[in-house]
Inverse folding.
């Protein structure tokens, strides 16, 4: 049985019910909200569920807050990726 994934920033401890990048459509591969990114071949991405651009888009739209535990805006590892 697949374990429920927790999305937790390893630096500030903020958690999300699902990957916050999924709250916005992907500007790179155009995956809609709630749908993981796909490569053009239709296969999942290597080593990630979403494109980095999508994280930035989520941040730009306020779905992903700036990480308080880090000087750069990115939350560190979001576990479960
Ligand atoms: Zn994408
Ligand atoms: Zn964080």
């Amino acid at each position: 049985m697949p374990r429920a994934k927790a999305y937790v920033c390893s630096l500030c401890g903020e958690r999300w019910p699902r990957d916050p990048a999924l709250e916005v459509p992907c500007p790179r591969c155009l995956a809609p909200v709630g749908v993981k990114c796909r490569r053009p071949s239709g296969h999942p991405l290597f080593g990630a569920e979403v494109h980095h651009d999508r994280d930035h888009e989520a941040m730009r739209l306020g779905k992903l807050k700036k990480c308080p535990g880090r000087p750069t805006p990115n939350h560190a590892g979001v576990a479960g990726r």
